[in-house]
UniProtKB/TrEMBL annotation:
The chain crosses the membrane at residues 21-44, 226-246, 253-271, 309-330, 350-374, 447-474, 495-517, 595-616, 637-657. The gene is Slc44a5. It catalyses: choline(out) + n H(+)(in) = choline(in) + n H(+)(out). Keywords: Antiport, Cell membrane, Glycoprotein, Membrane, Transmembrane, Transmembrane helix, Transport. Pfam families: Choline_transpo. It is found in: Cell membrane. This is Choline transporter-like protein. It comes from Dryoscopus gambensis. It is a multi-pass membrane protein. GO terms for cellular component: plasma membrane.
Length: 701
């Protein structure tokens, strides 16, 4: 694109604003109101207790008030052997009758034994009866009919509640799995079974129980050490601030030390390869080629060949030459990049409040996530109970068909399939609302993505406006307007909500497509159709690239919106062509910034991590008495390291935005002005010197 005609009266990002992308702004507000309405509808219909509490075969959840289950909060399975794994138990329904009970059984017993002795051992009958269907008290009914109609379980096993469900009480004795110190049990159908059958039925429960105890220990560690974790994060915050402030003095030094360090290391590598190559001269077998010896799993074999070291040496020489040539040809652009980094540090020094803006973005995103999660749960639990025919006979043609428990006994299903029952399967429904729950969930996810992207866009535009007002101040800092961050935030909300929403919408559509592709990929994992998998993989890759490109375009479009106040499309186009005209500078600046900020994050997270490690392992004598007694010292240590990295990332994201904004302003400045008295540069003296411009406006002297 050709350089544009500029407004000669332009004096920074404050004047002549008007609302942009109004249609998108109106649509965005309507969508938000619709989203609130969706939340209200979901809240009216949904009941999260359906997720928290298990549901019995009659469609009532355990502990439900004003029902027989009021004091029965645990789910009991008649025949746990029919359940393959706890995943089936938690997510889907197990093909056996389920009842709510107040406590799990604590002994082995079979219905056959209890019924045979009910006359002279009524206490055993009364104990067993509490695990039968409510109201059942007919010990004279034949065992075969009781088991067919599933009035009572064929057996009970010592169990304990887990996730509000009764699971066998496993323990290990001398390496042998037992339940209540027994390795075998009667299944109530005339067979003696091994406890390992139960273990397979409740597969992985012990692991989950162990995980639960580990979870409790981790929680205890957090409860004891939270105070020290916060101190660690505060130190990380201070280190991040210090790093950013010092960058104006050290950016160049850090970068050149690293570059010459890399050149030195590669140089040493070349010398070492040559030494090895020379050293192997005359040693038998060293002159063989890689082709001669073929593929070897032991890599050391290759290191005894001269050809290997020669190849290494050639590769390293190539890398060394490329780096040196890049430094020679790009030296001026690298100097500009470093000067912009220093300028960014100076700008943040003048507008310190910007460093704490990520907290606002974080809070906005946290609100979006919370609202989305609550709405999703209420939508998922807004179904009515759906009942299906559960038949003991495998050949029953009515099995798994939906049924109505109130009219079930009058149908001919019970005649054709003796013992068949109409039991609760899952929550769903046939009404218009229930049919569209999946669509509502998609809409919920889409608006969530839109809002999150809008929150990020608002942050980028606000910061860009604040830093642009610094750059376009003729005399720094005297001409920087009062409260630059707040004014920029106000401008973004008042005039540019539509433009920001438009950019966020494009990104949200691409992200939703990516989510759907991930879902399809997950669903098709079992299939062996390699072409479909290949196609999905290509699509995922394309949309990932598209999302990255759009994020880059959006970011620079928001900077242009903050500077000029034009609409999204115009700003995106102008930003793109401006960057294309300075494409090498963009590449160099991007890499130099990425490297220095990555170095900063590693320094902050590593420094605080080392400090935390010495503290929590009691290696700092001064604080040895202060260290809390922990189950796992790595719990607070990892929290501090990850937390420090995120704190540093928050601060440095502001800095990266600052550098990007200053860079676009710098490119605009070069195209708009020529350094004459009529068109003086707005850039700082250090940037001006690097460009080697002769005319320097009087105020820079």
């Amino acid at each position: 694109g050709e350089p544009r005609k500029f407004d000669p009266k332009f004096r920074g990002p404050i004047h002549n604003r008007r609302c942009t992308d109004l249609i998108c702004c109106v649509i965005f507000i309507v969508v938000i109101l619709g989203y609130i309405a969706l939340g209200v509808v979901a809240w009216v219909h949904g009941d999260p207790r359906k997720v928290i509490y298990p549901t019995d075969s009659y469609g009532q959840f355990c502990g439900q008030k004003n029902t027989l289950n009021k004091n029965k909060t645990i789910l009991f399975y008649f025949n746990i052997l029919k359940c393959a794994s706890p995943v089936v138990l938690i997510n889907l329904q197990c093909p056996t009758t389920q009842l709510c009970v107040s406590k799990c059984p604590d002994r082995f017993a079979t219905y056959i034994d209890v019924q045979a002795s009910y006359r002279y051992r009524p206490d055993q009958w009364n104990y067993f009866r509490q695990f039968c269907k409510p109201g059942f008290n007919n010990p004279r009914k034949s065992v075969a009919q009781v088991l067919r109609d599933e009035d009572c379980p064929s057996m009970i096993i010592p169990s304990r509640p887990f996730l509000k469900r009764c699971f066998p009480d496993f323990s290990t004795k001398n390496g042998v799995l037992t339940v209540a110190n027994q390795t075998t049990f009667k299944d109530g159908r005339g067979k003696t079974r091994n406890v390992t059958d139960l273990r397979e039925a409740a597969n992985g429960i012990n692991n989950v129980l162990d995980a639960r105890s580990v979870g409790m220990k981790i929680f205890e560690d957090y409860a004891i050490s939270w105070y020290w974790i916060l101190i660690g994060l505060f130190i990380a915050m201070m280190l991040s601030l210090l790093f950013l402030v010092l960058l104006r003095f050290t950016a160049g030094v850090l970068f050149w030390i690293f570059i010459f360090g890399v050149i030195g290391i590669i140089g040493y590598g070349i010398w070492h390869c040559y030494w090895e190559y020379d050293h192997l001269k005359g040693i038998p077998g060293s002159d063989l080629t890689v082709y001669d010896i073929g593929f070897q799993t032991d890599f050391k074999v290759y290191l005894q060949l001269r050809q290997t070291w020669l190849a290494f040496m050639i590769i390293l020489c190539g890398v060394e030459v490329i780096i040196i040539l890049m430094l020679i040809f790009l030296r001026n652009r690298i100097r500009i990049a470093i000067a912009l980094l220093k300028e960014g540090s100076r700008a943040i020094g003048y507008i310190m409040s910007t460093l704490f803006y990520p907290i606002v973005t974080f809070l906005l995103i946290a609100i979006c996530i919370s609202y989305w999660a609550v709405t999703a749960v209420f939508l998922a639990t807004s179904g009515e109970p759906v009942y299906k025919v559960m038949a003991n006979q495998t050949l029953c043609k009515y099995a798994n068909l939906t049924c109505d428990p109130e009219t079930f006994n009058t149908t001919n299903v019970t005649k054709l399939c003796p013992g068949a029952q109409c039991t609760f399967a899952f929550y769903g429904g046939e009404s218009l609302y229930h049919k569209y729950i999946f669509i509502f969930q998609l809409a919920n996810a889409f608006v969530f993505l839109w809002l999150v992207n809008f929150a990020i866009a608002l942050g980028q535009c606000t910061l860009a406006g604040a830093f642009a007002s610094y750059y376009w101040a003729y005399r720094k800092p005297a001409d920087i307007p009062l409260w630059p961050l707040f004014s920029s935030f106000g401008r973004a909300i008042r005039y540019h909500t539509g433009s920001l929403a438009f950019g966020a919408l494009i990104l949200a559509i691409v992200q939703l497509i990516r989510v759907i592709l991930e879902y399809l990929d997950h669903k098709l994992k079992g299939t062996q159709n390699s072409f479909t998998r290949f196609l999905l993989c290509c699509l995922k890759c394309c949309f990932w690239c598209l999302e990255k490109f759009l994020k880059f375009i959006n970011r620079n479009a928001y900077i242009m919106i903050a500077i000029y106040g034009k609409n999204f499309c115009t700003s995106a186009k102008e930003a793109f062509f401006l960057l294309m005209r300075n494409v090498v500078r963009v590449a160099v600046l991007d890499k130099v910034t990425d490297f220095l900020l990555f170095l900063g994050k590693i320094l902050v997270a590593g420094g605080v991590g080392v400090l935390a490690f010495f503290f929590f392992t009691q290696r700092i004598p001064v604080f040895a008495q202060e260290v809390p007694m922990l189950n796992y010292y790595w719990v607070p240590l990892l929290t501090v390291i990850i937390g420090s990295y995120l704190v540093a990332h928050g601060f440095f994201s502001v800095y990266a935005m600052c550098v990007d904004t200053l860079f676009l302003c710098f490119c605009e400045d070069l195209e708009r002005n020529d350094g004459s008295t009529a068109k003086p540069y707005f850039m700082s003296a250090s940037l001006h010197r690097i460009l080697g411009k002769k005319k320097l406006s009087p105020k820079k002297a």
